[in-house]
Write a structure and sequence with these properties.
homotrimer, alpha+beta, five-stranded antiparallel β-sheet, three-stranded antiparallel β-sheet, 4 helices, 8 strands
């Protein structure tokens, strides 16, 4: 059996005022390609308590539908206890992010993410201002011996 | 310390029109058993953007309660932007799946999934038609030397 | 490259009647420290079908806001099919836990969880009674050779 390798990397993405949603699949695929990982697991975690990760079909309609759904889960115009102490206007952002969750695990097969054809990995910003987000990525798997 | 092994497998499950929910615990336990994994992690990811994974007590009442809750999160009879472009009637399916999330991580201890007595691993289909679903499974752990 | 190690541990936490939310970050950091893990992944899974895991800014306001949001997702006073068979009054608990999900993956970098400054890992109890909860923790990573 091939021996296992681990790689600890990060990906940065600029996001607009939430809810904003960006496709990070190309950045993750690039990492896998650069590291020549063949088979294994990619674990990704959003750093920060007002962001989240999931997968969707990244087309403009679904993106807007998900934004609307996220705002139904924790509407920006509700009253939040967080506001009473902090007055930073992002109580809903914290709740939305906690409900969606910060982490995701994705399969790597034959050097590619193994997802559906219409399934992309997305980073969400729920904060009430634009944010440069960091996503920590840990890859565990076997490495190909193909040469460049 | 025992050396680590990795196994990349998949599980297939047939699901009815969404929301449909099926117990995949036996299929995952079978994999662990066949591979003789002793201690480690099982990561599972739903392939496709209208399916999801979670755990529940798999009894008919809770299953129906979860179906109802999922349809409250993104009701099929709302208007979705996805529909305006694609007219395939499954805008709600995409949103439901993105909110629940495609992946799960489960502990393997002494050759078994370590879950609650009443806690099963379930695959959900949110699509508006029946689907044969593929779940990619990556197991990392130590392997038992017991013989057959 | 340093060789990979795996550690299978568990953390226990006492939680009040749900929704209750507790910060488990110190317990996880303690494990990483005790095991001298340098870089890798921490996977945590809630054992039991009426609990869940996520991250939030653990301050009293957000904690109450998340409790309220969780009770909007599956209100305790709705009618649940689970009740008709089991009469244990926790139909909403099962649904809440399934929607939030039982598992989380967190990056370990330089011997610490790599999270946002205001981002803590929390365990949620959704059950209608207080519970001693077990969280299974699997850590895969490289180990530091620093001495005590």
């Amino acid at each position: 059996m091939k021996s296992l390798s681990i790689f600890c990397k990060s990906v940065k993405v600029s996001l607009d005022t939430g809810p904003d949603i960006r496709d990070i699949t190309p950045a993750l695929e690039q990492l896998i390609d650069d590291l020549r990982v063949e088979n294994g697991n990619l674990c990704a975690t959003m750093v920060g308590s007002t962001g989240s990760l999931t997968t969707i079909e990244y087309e403009p309609g679904v993106v807007r539908d998900l934004m609307a759904a996220v705002n139904r889960l924790a509407p920006p115009d509700l009253e939040y206890e967080h506001e009473k102490a902090w007055h930073d206007g992002n109580g809903h952002s914290h709740v939305q992010a906690a409900l969606l969750g910060p982490s995701i695990v994705l399969p790597i097969r034959k050097g590619r993410l193994k997802l559906g054809t219409w399934q992309q990995v997305v980073a969400l910003n729920h904060d009430n201002r634009s944010r440069q987000r960091t996503i920590e990525v840990t890859i565990i798997g076997t490495v190909s011996e193909r040469r460049g």
